[in-house]
């Protein structure tokens, strides 16, 4: 798998400066997202992984310092920040370094100096352990990756659960690849729900010549084809009860008997099962064998739905853009409003739906910058729904800002001047925000 380019978040309102930096970064092989306002950058930083962020200190809507403080207060994992300060604003820069910024440059500066710093930070990020990000950047998917690394050495049966389209097969494939990085062993995927009972047995275990009408020659089943590698049984909950007994026997005995045959054939496989169904409930209803459930449940990996791991959305979306660019030769990108819409949509069909949505937009859009309409015109039935998703984002930001300001005020005993200084805004600005966000001091502080 080729390594994706290091990603830079550039926050700069000056058109000439922004454009020339962006061009230079792209020439040097980086992927760069350029934001003109702090608010736009904030939304994306919350949901996308960058190796470096570069921000001007003076932005039209918010100071770079306030933006940085707000991001820190949101408690998210931030990339290293390099600030660009005006001449003589050393005090600002020192304050930012104390807050945790990585570095600063004073205007005018040599672009090569900035590039050196960026290069060093990107190298540092790549050397971090466990940062290969095969499945996603959310903590949930990173935990799954860490778990796969632990499980890879064993041969225990793995059960992967999760809603349809969350990437269960992708997880199974990642586990297989960990065990077989050279790609020399087979990975056989079977959808148990797609085959009838009689077909399933012959497909899984194979058949001897003459076993049934039409069996003109002997045939190896999926178990034998997967020998020395991985057999992935998707939709295991759809497997008929009679087949479940046969599967259990094959797992216990590490051998199969072909349809029409008698001789057990030993098979050495890693078995991975997956389902979107609630197997425990099925066991209680007598629809799934309890003994098989315990046999395949040795290692359980639940994959959360996409709406519960928002950080993965834009990371995946960018991967899909790169994937389709490699096919079509046209590199699309997202308009900032489209980026917001991607994050706020609930994705009931999970990663599959996200991928389809981006693929469709890449094929149909005449413009390389994809808009919300390009992505969602067919998914959302009306403008009202679109407004509703954006509305919920506004609500989220308002709630976050309110919470942050209330916390800062409480920490400073509701003293306006101190709080305003601490969060890097003027007293007037703080009063305005309090009025806008409907924040008032508790009675004991009045
Ligand atoms: N981490 C990921 N990175 C890239 N693509 C992904 C990832 N996860 C899922 N996908 C893509 O999303 C689609 C659905 O993934 P997958 O088939 O693995 O889901 P699933 O949970 O097994 O679905 P189902 O329950 O329907 O079998 C596929 O096109 C897959 O390539």
UniProtKB/TrEMBL annotation:
What would you give as a GO molecular function for this chain, any one?
Answer: ATP binding
Q: Which InterPro entries match?
A: AAA+_ATPase, AAA_lid_NorR, CheY-like_superfamily, Homeodomain-like_sf, HTH_Fis, P-loop_NTPase, Sig_transdc_resp-reg_receiver, Sigma_54_int
Domain Response regulatory positions: 7-122
Keywords recorded for this protein, A-Z: ATP-binding, Nucleotide-binding, Phosphoprotein, Plasmid, Transcription, Transcription regulation
Q: Which SMART domains match?
A: AAA (SM00382), REC (SM00448)
Query: Which Pfam families does this entry report, sorted A to Z?
Result: AAA_lid_14, HTH_8, Response_reg, Sigma54_activat
User: Where 4-aspartylphosphate occurs, residue numbers?
Assistant: 56
Protein name, as recorded: Two component, sigma54 specific, transcriptional regulator, Fis family
Gene designation: arxR
**UniProt cross-references to PANTHER family, sorted A to Z:** TRANSCRIPTIONAL REGULATORY PROTEIN (PTHR32071)
- Which residues belong to any copy of the Sigma-54 factor interaction domain? 134-363
